[in-house]
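Listing 4. Sequential folding, example run.
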Amino acid sequence: MKYDLKKIEYVNAIKLAGYKTDVQVQVTIKLKKAIDVENLQVKLVSRTKGFNQIDKRWVEKYAQMWNMPSEIISILKRYTGEDKPNIKNPRDKRRMYADEFPAKEQTLILNWLKQNKTMIVCDIMKGRGRLAAEWMLVAQKVAKNARWMLKPMNFCLNYYSKGTIFITPKGNFRIGKITMQRKGGDNGRDTSKMLQFKIDPTELFNN
């Protein structure tokens, strides 16, 4: 963070919940009346590689945040299973995969994601308001080895958003290096129908 350690008088860390910022660090500088505040998002990983959830919500919540057209809401609700498939013989009777939508709807959703890419990536990774995350801290512990890395959030936004938007061979969506998919799991509870976004935080160790 480029602080002069000799000038720091006191550091206090506050754990938060329900925000993109997991830990707020308050830094008191000697001979200064003001306290600097740094908002950190923390990712803990226990494998050499692996996806980590960065955001999940009901489609309706994203629709409100991003002012989604009704056609996009309909596609995403069929994708997550909130609405039933409207095709014959879907691979999963509970929902539709991205590659099962008619070509017209695939083009519609991909174009919408491209047009709103910057807003989407910023909201799911950084968040909004005074508790938006300004840093990402990745801590990895594998067997007896441990390491950590701190990156500015703007670097992370650029890194993970870089690349094309497409439908994966498994029928999910990719926004650069971010996977957008149906949450699934949860023993079949309704929360499995939420939309989630995932990244591999360990990629930052090599960038």
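-- end of first protein; second protein begins --
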Amino acid sequence: MRNILLTVSYDGTDFCGWQRQDKSDGGKPVRTVQAEIENALYKIHKTQVNLQGSGRTDSGVHAYGQAANFLSPVDSIPVEKYVPAINSFLPKDIRILDAQEKPLDFSSRFNAVSRTYRYFIQAGVPCASKTRYVWNVKHEPDIEKLNQMAQCLKGEIDFATFTAAGDASLSTKRFMYDAHFFWQEDFTGSKVLVFEICANAFLWKMVRSITGTLIEFERDNKDVSYFKEVLESCDRKKAGPTAPPDGLFLWKVNFEGQRVHV
């Protein structure tokens, strides 16, 4: 028995999120990333293999570096062969980028120290090949104002203001390592605004709620003190709209360092 850690990239547009859902559509399964990979693993191992992800992504959310592990009952497959083997059975909107062998007690969920998300925003009309992967806004945001507000998001914070109704987490507190905006040029030569946010873990739709609020507050010329007041209120009604899933990517899962529990 071996424990294999995968780095997974996927276009989440046509998936009902990461987690397998076998009875969601009138008792029928819906298309999820976890289910597609587990089906590919079944074809390789000839038996059911359970895949554990570092966290769930919602419908329409993408991943550049999702982490997931499984226990393989086969010892004869070299670990580097898992990448081409699994990809050969996957649809094109999922790619396995890397495979590593880990100790049997390793968990991609419970050993993760931090998760980093990136949200991509573009002012003006993006080219057709990018519409799945950016949030198209009508104005060019002021990055200085956005970063001033984002500075309020560091350290141990109660993020109840940015929690979606129905979140089952026992606590709404999370430890935020970093949150900042930067500009980058994409493959078309267009400027794209990137919001990078890193924490020990995230609440349901938390990143999208924070992003939508920051963009709305910047547009409406709200200042840092106003954003801080809304954050500390723990009142979801005071937050702005939830940004669409299109521009959101689970960018990286980090397993190095000390895990913070809050």
